Amino acid sequence: MNPLLLGLQPYPFERLKALFADVTPNPAYRPISLGIGEPKHPTPALVNEALCANLAGLSGYPATAGESSLREGMAQWLQRRYGLTVNPVTQILTVNGSREALFALAQTVLDPSERDALVVCPNPFYQIYEGAALLGGAQPYFVASDPARNFAVDWDSVPEAIWAKTRLLFVCSPGNPTGAVMPLAEWQKLFALSDKYGFVIASDECYSEIYFRDEPPLGALQAATLFGRSAFKNLVMLTSLSKRSNVPGLRSGFVAGDAAIMKAFLLYRTYHGNAMNPVVQAASLAAWNDETHVQDNRAQYREKFAQVTPVLADVLDVRLPDAAFYLWAGVPAHVCGGSDTAFAKALLAQYNVTVLPGSYLAREAHSFNPGLGRIRMALVAPTAECLEAAQRIVQFIQTN
After folding, report:
1. Which listed CATH number (3.50.50.60, 3.10.50.40, 3.40.50.11190, 3.90.1150.10) goes with 3-42+293-398?
2. How many CB atoms lie within 10 A of CB 328?
3. What integer is the mean pLDDT of 362-372?
4. Which of 59, 166, 244, 356 could form a disulfide with 376 if both were Cys (CB 3.0 to 4.6 A apart)?
């Protein structure tokens, strides 16, 4: 077996299952899960209709790069959303969701013979970044975050010797689990570092369409264009329909950016065999071409967070995020000793509500795990259900 597999850690939800193995949830309450970031709003009718109308596509093999009509539709969306001009032939590839693309991109970029190569990741982070680094033959380097700045990544804390060995940098904006959005000045700093040390920046933007400010989150390619970097050298962005269009089961997204990276990535994917199902391609085009359902989806999240956040803010260290659909909350020191894992166990046992311990979404680095003492709550269920969960959490805290 590949010995690199031994370096992988259990996924957060496997750890959560093990944590709850000896917990009996209170049967007096119906179960409510805020643990997994799986969209629960209805799938748009236009996606279902497109799936049913294009079943004939199953009779042929799909092209690895994706149909030209779909890539053109993706390019048009980038133009509408960010004001970008992106070549759909050379700068866009369809992918089966951003998760597999994040992993596969690392295998394309990293040189497995370079044993001291590093992949820089935020901390807390999406665990795919770590696994992609390890199975690509590199080591992850976790960057400290600043709780005083909504857990913004402290890039200035990274030593020059680390940047010199960095081959790939994963960023996530809006961030999981904090919901923080990277400002233009932060992008400028990362572009300068990439130019100096030659590493690739992979921008995970799957939460870009769920936001709570009037101005939508800045994207990586958008930031690059503002600095005159229209060729997107050493820069790619990855996005997905899962959160934007409530179709996590569709497994559909795309990668866009540096044409040289896209060429190598296409070669890798040709051998990897990850072409998108033609029926899914047709449904994806319908979704990318429509914004009405996206606006409705965003309005639902805004109403949900407007109701739930104030309720929880009375008892938890929590505030409305910039974007995404998570609340990243600090556990009170007087409840379960401030332990995120003990809090999650006791909450499930007493009130049948599931939350994810923050320490499962981070690693101890530089003598500190930034997720310790925090929990992540995914407000993906209907508003009434999320509000009921929040009210139970308030009762739990007030009685413990």
Report:
1. 3.90.1150.10
2. 26
3. 92
4. 356
